[in-house]
What does this fold into?
Amino acid sequence: MTDTAEAAKSSTATAVEEEPKAKAAEAPSTEDKKDTGAEDKKKKEEAEEGGGKKEEESAKEEMRAVVLHGFGGLKSVKIVKRPQPALADGEVLIRVQLCGVNFQDLMVRQGVTEAPPKTPFVLGFECAGVVEAIADDVEDFKVGSRVVAIADHRAWAELVPVPSKFVYAVPDNMPLQEAAAITLSYAVAYILVHELAAIAPGQTILLHSAGGAVGQAVCALCRHAGNVTVIGVASKCKHDDIRSSVTHLIERGQDVPSEVRKLCPEGVDVVLDCQGGEECNRGYSILKPFGRYVLFGSSNIVTGETKSFFSVAKSWWQVDKVSPLRLHDDNKSIMGFNFRRFLHHQGGEEHVKRVLESVYELWKEGVAKPNIDSTFALEDVTEAMAKMHERRNVGKLLLDLSMEAKPKPTTPAKTKKEDKKETKEEAKDEKKENEKKDNDKKENEKKENEKKEEAAKEDTKEAKAAEEK
Amino acid sequence: MTDTAEAAKSSTATAVEEEPKAKAAEAPSTEDKKDTGAEDKKKKEEAEEGGGKKEEESAKEEMRAVVLHGFGGLKSVKIVKRPQPALADGEVLIRVQLCGVNFQDLMVRQGVTEAPPKTPFVLGFECAGVVEAIADDVEDFKVGSRVVAIADHRAWAELVPVPSKFVYAVPDNMPLQEAAAITLSYAVAYILVHELAAIAPGQTILLHSAGGAVGQAVCALCRHAGNVTVIGVASKCKHDDIRSSVTHLIERGQDVPSEVRKLCPEGVDVVLDCQGGEECNRGYSILKPFGRYVLFGSSNIVTGETKSFFSVAKSWWQVDKVSPLRLHDDNKSIMGFNFRRFLHHQGGEEHVKRVLESVYELWKEGVAKPNIDSTFALEDVTEAMAKMHERRNVGKLLLDLSMEAKPKPTTPAKTKKEDKKETKEEAKDEKKENEKKDNDKKENEKKENEKKEEAAKEDTKEAKAAEEK
It folds into this structure.
């Protein structure tokens, strides 16, 4: 089933559901049995997600949240009622008005990110709203202040507690919607353009996923840098919308290096790649001397709606390892950038705070502009995810918690004509993918089988462990 | 034989020699036979080195030059009389007063650089002097102007023709000796510190070969950047001299990562490595998130006085290849920088010109300071090379063409005591190296044999080719 079809089905099915009380109440005790000192905090969080502490539960009001009930397709994503979360030390409780949808959310849903929380848990990395409460030890914020947060999962709910180090005050005069649209995209884009690639006037960059929110932010920053040639790669359907933001456009799926060589035979100074897979090797090959290839994502892992062992494995084995000695000979650099990991697991909070100060300055100057593709009701989250999956969004996808779960002018309902067109394109895409798969199948069959076997072993292990309990 | 002993012997043997007329005269014709269209220019240059065009030769005056007669030890380096070179289009003829000695010169002598000229040829990459003549199509310079040049080999002679794009005007008031000392070292250091590593206040860098000319230039630029912690690695004998230029010192040969972890458990922001080999893997391991490892040389290739298949092979197979996906996960970067290749073979001339404008500005501000270890007469070049080989220089080694080939106050003669000390240290070093070799031998024997076989094949090929002529 394609994501669109699934989204339509899910969408009708996701009228807010009451989470079964029994399950919600049981969850924490199950978690408690497994507790092992070091994981206490995590378990606590998971226990809360499972239904909150028993004693507090009855007293608490409920809220809506987007919960992932198991890794997989859109069907695993449900809007459910949850007890309102408790506030821990160092945290800010945010009454959420807007949420950002990112490609990472699709990866989390499929279970292809590193060490995701155990299901069920609240999805999402970005939310914006108003401070509802503050832990006693937090001094930076006031109740009622407008903030944006980049959370480590669990951001798509009406009330979200986030450690204050990941919460950012929205500048006066900046509409909350703009803050929600620019904060994460421009933080990533700023680090890419000004810190890693260090793009200078006169340079040429190759930008994959040019039509996404980060891609469009990169374009804006390059335009501001002045005299930067941007070669954007994007799905054909986005070309009309993004043509003015780039210097040249290449269609996604084409032979990118050949197309780049036609445009600039001497190669490019920078490649910004969030795809991974074969693009890594191709990207390196078209770098000029002194060029920098920056890998900041691996969206190639996501192919179908659910996790594909084939595509996950392929995204790894396709990428050539490179000797530092070759980089020395070629005068080239390879740079890795994993924003979420940096911010949440490698102590990047101060760094990101500094970056956001610059980003908000650029907003004041009119450089950083929100580029919102569309806004969805919380209940329509699967529709937003499907749109991103199919690479149909130009700029940011937002969830607006004040919106009702029905088609609105800002979230135009699909006409039958559009639907048909999409279905055709999907059919084409699917056909293409199948052809590709067939070609690769033979050589990759062995590796895939190995992966499957490993996964099967894992499953058996898990099943055994569950039985033992 | 150690380099020092060899240097002493060579030194006495290198009283200017007259190059055998027969050989000099024959060389061009031999070269002519082999000419194949595309290589015309190179062959012409080689022919000139072989003795110059026959018809011009008698009319020309002679000059001194440091000529490499075959790849190998110090014995292959001779001071010979050569016909003065002709000036080609786009070139500037420089009457040389000073030459810079670089580690690359040792590598060229051993024949471990990529595509060196055919022997015999004039050694050296750096010279400074006064413009003697200018080709008709060169507009940037005037006869009599003081210049520095970074040549593609062939810089160690009394008269050196260099394409004008590799020649730099010495700023007024800058003594020629200072220009000779800072130009190349600071160009490399500037690109390392300000462009590749992009060192910022508050950061920590690990700097290999901290006592060399480039290393000392890096220290000066970091000091100027302010609040940069420099952990320098250098031979023990240099520690007293360079202690004030770095924050911490580690002895060369120690377990660098462990020592670094003792000083800063969280790792470093930047590693600047001109050694290669195992240091590559070690360097990567001690990087903080967002850290950059910059490989800008592979001096580990040079062990003994002559080329060692073992060390060349080892410098390659020791280096782990890295997947860009790992860099993405780790939030790290690996950057390669090969200055000479960039400047001479990858069109980096405008880039380097811009860099040198900044360097000369920094000289005016008192930031870029010449750090001259010692100055040698042209005839004492092997002594300079030996000093560099044994890592005894702190800062720049220069050849001064006006100096006479005998011990001078600026080139203090070695006392017997010093000599003894050095011999002891060398013996220790040799012992250490032998032990290391023994340990590695078994696992590496196979690879070495393969390399040797390849080399033997190459030799056989060359011998056959020679026979066929």
In short: Chain B is about 45% helix and 20% strand. The mean pLDDT of chain B is 81.
